[in-house]
Amino acid sequence: MTEWSPSIERLQKLADEEWLQVEQAYCGRLLAYASRRTGDVQASEDIVQETLMGAVRGILDFDPIYTFEQYLFGICRNRTIDYLRRRRATTLQASEDDSRFPGMETLAHETETPSAIIRGKELGERATNLMGDILRDWVDETWSQKEFTRLCVIEALFSGGWRNRDTWERFELRDETAVAGIKFRALKRLRQLAAVRESGSDLLSGLEAAADGDGRVMDVDVREVWRERRVSCPSRFWLARLIAGTLEEGPLGYIRFHVDEMACPWCQANLDDLAERERASKLGDFLERMQESTLKYLRSKSTQ
User: Fold this and answer.
1) CA 68, CA 51: separation in Å to the nearest integer?
2) How far is Cα 166 from Cα 193, in angstroms, rounded to an integer?
3) Which of 24, 103, 187, 193 is the most exposed place for a label (fewest CB within 10 A)?
């Protein structure tokens, strides 16, 4: 089952029907994402409206390296951070105690740009893109092989920054050497996948060394790439099966780990949205207002 994805070409032409379908498909999950972070219904609706209008305004600069959903969530995350910073600044004027906003420091940290500079900015960007591609290739391959424990271990190490000891105990492996072996084989496979994509490239020498203690390969922050590129996020098809209770043990264990222990904000938002679909009327009024605003904007641009 493949999830619907909009035509970027039609979106760039400001086709009404395509943008309205985008709002129908993505509004709920964006609203769920913002609501989890702000705890404010009105603020969340404002953030989502700003997100979708920002997507319309910026669609001509869409980078095909990312999926359209990544493009939307990236804008939504930035708008959410802006809101939390404004709220925090306002609160600090009245009180120096900002403990009522747990998670602000973590959220702000997500905006830091990865230090991915190898022989200049251009090579650094290539390295980051290559890392995202090969991590996705590795995840897809591991999923198809139904090696869900291996997938959990590597996500815990690469994305979660877990220690070997914590990892082998959590997944009931033999000992820490078992974790080290899984990591070694994963790095070896990543080098092979990189060689397929960048045969003869000057980037490949950077993969000769294993990831060091701070989670870097090719001077790229693997944890940042893993999360930003959402390399291991299951599709909504799998999340819908999770809600329906029809998942087999292997994918069930992995998805629960990814959502609950890795606390993936994108998948949590998708799950919230899917759970809310039974109460579609709650979203209906907001969606209708937002679509009216979008149509007004699109039609004003088409007459220019």
Assistant:
1) 13
2) 28
3) 103
One-letter amino acid identity for 144?
S
17 with 73: CB under 8 angstroms?
Answer: no
Residues of the chain with pLDDT below 70 are 1-2, 90-124, 199-219, 278-285, 302-304
Kindly report, residue by residue over 157-189, the tens digit of the pLDDT: 999 999 998 999 999 998 999 999 999 999 888
Contact indicator for 22, 264 with CB cutoff of 8 Å = no
| 3-class SS string, 231-278 | CCCCCHHHHHHHHHCCCCHHHHHHHHHHHHHCCCHHHHHHHHHHHHHH
State how far the Cα of 272 lies from the Cα of 24, in Å rounded to an integer.
15
- Both tokens assigned to 18: 């395509």
Contact in structure between 187 and 94 (CB atoms under 8 Å): no
**pLDDT score at 222:** 85
Cα–Cα distance, 160 to 68 (Å, whole number): 25
Longest dimension (CA), the chain: 67
Query: What confidence score (pLDDT) does residue 221 get?
Result: 82
3-class DSSP state for residue 3?
A: coil
Give, in order, the Cα–Cα distances in Å from 290 to each of 7, 19, 144. 21, 11, 40
Taking each helix axis from N to C end, the angle separating 280-302 and 41-58, rounded to the nearest 10 degrees, works out to: 30
